Amino acid sequence: MPGYGILPPDGGRGLLPWSWAAERIAKSHNYWIATTRPDGWPHVMPVWGVWLGDAFYFSTGRTTQKARNLAANPRCVMCTECADEAIILEGVVERVDDPSLYARIADAYEAKYDWRLEQATSPAYAVRPGVAFAFIENAEDFAGSATRWRFSDEQPAVDSGAG
Questions:
Q1: Which residues pair with 75 in a beta bridge?
Q2: I need a labelling partner for 90 at 20 to 30 A (CA). Which of 30, 102, 154, 155 fits?
Q3: Per residue in 95-147, pLDDT tens?
Q4: Could you give the domains of the chain?
Q5: For residue 115, which of 107, 127, 123 has the smallest C-alpha distance?
């Protein structure tokens, strides 16, 4: 982010650890999912979801615009509800077909929202991040908090200030 005064990862004031971001993803109540329509137009809608292990899981109806968009292009962006401590995940979506994983997701939904997913009517999707960004929006913390993580099959790694 040239011109914003973002510190590099070795800037000494410490960029945010992934545990900070994962905690906020898990605690958020609402999330934004951005997908792309087949004609290239963006589509953004709020969803409920849960963070389990290394992925964000959400559900949507089989015939919704989100579901149709993801069938054509599985890339998406997920953002938490709080812009003051923003977490943004860019990733690829996979539909959850494994009944045991779906049951874990439904249990987590029920614990969080007091509402149970039903696989017959509400397909679940997993967003596995490829890259994530985080920012704390205040003058004291912004330059030292803007963080970007790149994900491999292993652990997230900070590679530079957000960009």
A1: 92
A2: 102
A3: 999 999 999 999 999 999 999 999 888 899 999 999 998 888 764 655 556 78
A4: 18-151 (2.30.110.10)
A5: 107
